[in-house]
TrEMBL record:
Protein name (Swiss-Prot/TrEMBL): Uncharacterized protein
Domain of life: Bacteria
Source organism (scientific name): Methylorubrum thiocyanatum
Length: 88
């Protein structure tokens, strides 16, 4: 990682010290929201909104993301296997 970027990230994390819980819950809420947003954009025609040739590409990537998003969401919710009942 770049030193300047690392410094900036540390400063940002220090400033957010009391808000980390809210930021984490907002991040999880946005992860929950992504599959629904992708399903809502399934019927959108992207060709008039994007440059020529990019509409099909964008629709293809959105279709792949629509298939992958629920899988990623399910894997993020499951705790790791060794954390279930193991010694502490």
């Amino acid at each position: 990682m770049f030193p300047a970027l690392r410094r900036r990230a540390r400063r940002c994390m220090a400033a957010m010290r009391g808000y980390k819980v809210y930021a984490a819950s907002a991040a999880l809420a946005s992860i929950d929201l992504v599959p629904d947003l992708l399903n809502a954009t399934a019927g959108v025609d992207w060709t008039p909104l994007l440059p020529e040739g990019w509409g099909v590409r964008a629709a293809g990537w959105l279709a792949v993301a629509r298939l992958v998003a629920p899988i990623v969401k399910a894997r993020l919710r499951k705790p790791p296997a060794d954390s279930m009942g193991g010694p502490r």
